[in-house]
Amino acid sequence: MTIAVSGVPASPGIVIGPVHLLRWEVPEVPARTVEPEYAPREIERLHAACDQAIVRLRKVRDRVEQHAGPEEAAIFDVQISICDDADLRTSAETLIRQGFVAEKAFDLVLLEWREHFARSTNALMRERVSDLLDVQIRVLSLLLDLPDRDPVDLPKGSNAILVTHDLTPSLTVQFDREAISAIATDAGTGTSHVAILARSLGLPAVVGLRDATAKIASGMTAILDGTHGLLVLDPTAERVAEYRERARVELEEARELEQYARADSVSVDGVRITLRANVDMPDEAAAGATSGAEGVGLMRTEFLVVGRAAMPDEDEQYEAYSKVLRAFSPHPVVIRTYDIGGDKLPVGGFPHEANPFLGWRAIRMCLDEPELFKVQLRALLRAAMNGDLRIMLPLVVSVDEVRQSRVLLAEAAAELAARGVPHRTDVPLGVMVETPAAVITADALARETAFFSIGTNDLVQYTLAVDRGNVSLVKRFQALHPAVLRLIARTQQEGTAAGIEVSVCGEMASQPLMAFALVGLGIRQLSVAPRSVPAVKHLIRSIRVSAATEAAAAALETGAAGAAEAVLRERLMVELRQRGDAADGLLALVDGHILPDNADIH
Ligand code: PEP
Ligand code: MG
What we know:
By secondary structure, this protein is α/β, with parallel strands linked by helices. It has three domains: about 5-25 and about 150-255, Phosphohistidine domain (Glucose Oxidase, domain 1, 3-Layer(bba) Sandwich), CATH 3.50.30.10; about 40-145, PtsI, HPr-binding domain (Enzyme I, Chain A, domain 2), CATH 1.10.274.10; about 270-530, Phosphoenolpyruvate-binding domains (TIM Barrel), CATH 3.20.20.60. The chain contains 24 helices and 16 strands. The protein has helices at about 40-65, 70-85, 85-95, 100-120, 125, 130-145, 170-175, 195-200, 210-215, 235-255, 285-290, 315-330, 360-370, 370-385, 400-420, 435-440, 440-450, 455-465, 480-495, 510-520, 535-540, 545-555, 560-575, 585-590, and strands at about 5, 10, 15-20, 160-165, 180-185, 205, 220-225, 230-235, 275-280, 295-300, 330-335, 390-395, 430-435, 450-455, 500-505, 525-530. The chain has an eight-stranded mixed β-sheet with strand order 1-8-7-3-4-5-6-2. Helix 14 crosses helix 15 and helix 22 (about 545-555) packs antiparallel against helix 23. The radius of gyration is 25 Å and the shape is globular. The site of phosphoenolpyruvate has 11 residues, from strand 10 and helix 18.
């Protein structure tokens, strides 16, 4: 029977293929005991499972090394050594001799080790907690004969839809892009790390499916519609045919939009809006450079770290940043310093926090770890020789953070000078405006920074006190809430008064209705995923900024998101209708009546 599970659209596109279910969680282990005479047999099972896990891990390591690189593969060496650890095996043997079956003994030892490592004052030990967890899952699935479902195990060309609870960093590096064509997760929202990653990889994705993993079995055929946030399981032949047609139409629309890639980004009434690209991985730079973007408005450097056990060194970072700068030269490239924390974490390596989004994140972590931060700053100053680089600090709440960063930047430059390494010392330093504190002190920040870039994903989260990654709060994550609109307007006014550039690089900028609102609020620079550049350019070329300004002024006067959205939608529809046929596609997007008809789905 066909089942449709609806979630949050995270990355557009349609894929029809087999489901690859990955349950990466510690399985329930029944508390069985055995008579002492069976202990030798259980001990043998224990060693066999650990040895088998090592064989699997070596395979995984080799594949990851081939696909991602030696640094990403290093995590698996750590896990191999855990499986091989004599103390660990002896502790489990002791419990077996006390009467526990092998799986329970292993489970208890790993639980104890994880707690012990998590409490350690030694950062290196704390870093091992997630490796212990991965080993626990892998060995227990062998002992309990649960299918080990490594995503790298799929044959290339499988066109599989990976369905999992959440895509953790260690899973992310393992999956084979030549085997997996789409991602579906129980957890996550449109602005969570998994969604950003999927968009960066150009993989269609639906997140926030809540309990999809409970309803699904590997091998089932499914349709993943990343544009509308739908996963259809066991579809009928008619539905498959329907979606093949939809996929064809989407592709055609995308091709039609390509004409805008080369067009000028100028409104009907002659106002130029600069469109830049958000680039999260250096390998996407070349593709991003052909999207019609005039430079990079945000490069998220934490994706160099997510999925790795160790930070990239100065040379590796220099190469990564230079690649992006060269691809976009002579346009500006804004590279953001590490925004690690929240839901963007290296493998292990991070303290457990009760409230990670209010925690040790981004600039806070970098200022507390100056040596780590300076490696990045040195790499950036060196890379600046290869293009028009601008450095941006994330999650700033006070001007002190900018000042401290400047001191470290000067130290980094001095260190390079001492080594005789070519670098620049005049790189503009700007900030992300993504906290209410930054908006409210924007006048002070503007005096000490070269530019503002508004991060609406976080600004919405911190203004409305709505966790951006919580799927239960998706409807409450209201980017068009007048409180958010007023903060954006204020940032724009303060930045303009101080004569600095103000751009928006959050997800808001990618959506036509919201881009209309942003332009209306006075924003003249937007940065969006490369794939969204043509559509946003099409929007800009279809509107009058004067109409957007009036619409935004009306939205600012409303008291709630629903009313603001209604005002903006109505005005944008009027505007687009005046453009005739040329704006039909945009009208359909803005009209909101684009969800598929699910009437015959049970
Ligand atoms: C934002 O917060 O809007 C932003 C662009 O940064 P990130 O999504 O990486 O937090
Ligand atoms: Mg942010």
